[in-house]
Amino acid sequence: MIDMSTSGFVRDARHLRLDTFVRLRWLAITGQSAAVVGAQFGLGLPLPFGWCFLVIATSSWLNLALRIRFPASYRLSDDSAALLLAFDIIQLAALLFLTGGLQNPFSLLFLAPVLISATALPPERTLALGLLAIGLATLLALVHRPLPWFADGRLELPFLYISGIWTAILLGTAFTGVYAWKVAEETRQLAQALAATELVLAREQHLSQLDGLAAAAAHELGTPLGTIMVVTKELTRQLATTASPAVREDLALLRDQVDRCRGILSKLTSLDSDEAGFLQTVGLSHLVEELVEPQRAMGILLDVSNHGDGPEPVCRRNPGVMFGLGNIVDNAVDFANARVVIEARWTLERVWLEIRDDGPGFSSEVLLRAGEPYVTTRSPDRSRSPDSTGAGLGLGLFIAKTLIERSGAQLTLSNVSQSGATGAVVRISWARHIFERDAISLNHAQLSRPQPLTETSASPI
Q: Which of 27, 151, 259, 295 is 20 to 30 A off residue 372, Cα-Cα?
C-alpha cells in the first residue's frame, strides 16, 4: 500500500541535518581564528589573544561533542537547532565583547544565525533569535573592552556612529530575516505540494495498473492451464475402463477445477480485451460522461454537450488526467448554485474541454496566483464543514493543474464575462495529436502483442 499521508514530509520539511550546522560552525571557527591571528600577528593589534581563543575553543569543543554523540545524518528538532544558533550568537557576542563591541566591523555577523534560522526554523524561533541578537548588540553598544588599535594611538568612535551600527544590525536582522523566511517558505510549500502531487499520481497509477497486471497474469496462466486440461482429457480417455471410481472422481474434480480457473482467468483477461477497451482507451464523450456520472446525484443540473469536426478523438486512459479533471468537476458542482455546463469540442487540430458553473466565480487572488500551491478556492465556512476533512489547503487546484498539464494540455481559469451572470470557467485544450498519441501507441502495441496459447494449441505432455 502507498502511504498517502503528507504529515511526514510537512513535519520534516524544516528539519536540517546536524552535519549542516557542524560544517557551518567549522567554517565560522576557521574565519574567527584567521581574523584573530591576522589582527594579532599580522597587524600587531593588542588583542586579548588567550581569551579570544578560549571562546573559539568552546565552539570547537561543542562541535566535536556533537560529532561524537550524533551521526552525520541526524536531523535536529526545531528547539535543538534554535539552541545551537543561540549558542553561536552568544559566542559571537563574547568575541565582540573582547574586541571592541559594535565598533568591531565584524559585528554585522549577528545577521548570519538569524538568516539561517529564517530559512530553516519556524517564525517564532527566528523571532526569539532575532531578539537575542538585538539584545546582545544593545549590551555590546554600552559595555565592551576597547577596540584594539595600534600601540601609538587609541581609536574612539562617536556614540552616534555606534548607534548607527546598532540601527543597521536591527534593520538588517528584521529585513533579511523576513526576506529569507518568505523566500524559503515559498520554496518549501512548492516542494511539499509537488511531493503531494507525486503521491496522488502514484496512487492513481497503482490502482490503474492493477487491471493490467491481472490481465497479464491471466495471459501467462492461460497456457499452463490449457496444457493441464489436455493432459486431464488424455488421462480420462486412457483410464476410462481401468480406473477405479476414486481415480475417476479425482479426474472429474480436476477437470471441474481447471474449468473454474479458466473461467476466472477469462474474466481477468476481459479487462484487457477489445470488448472492455474503455479500461485502456476512451473517447472524449465517454471521458466526459465518466466525469459527470458520480456528480448526478448531487442535486445540480449537469448540462453536457459534445460536438466537433471529424471523428471523435480517442485518448488512452490517464489516471492523472482523470483525477485532475474529476477534481475540477467536483469543485464546479460544489460551488454551483443550480447548473454546471460541461462542453467538449474538437476539430482536426485541437481538442477543448470547458467547465462552467453559475456560482460566485474565482476570487481575484485565485486568478492572480493560479497554479501556485496552497491557494484555496474554498471559503472558510466550506472548509470548516464536517464533510470537508482536509479541504481548504489549496492543493486541489494545484494538483489538478499539474496533472492535466503533464498530458500536454493548457489550462486557463477565468470568470463568466456575460453581463448579469456569475460563475467560474475552466478551459482545457490539447493539440489533437497530443491528445491521441498514447491511444495510437496503445493500439499498435495491442496489434503486435503475442497471443497466449489456447486449449486447442496447447501441447500435450
A: 295
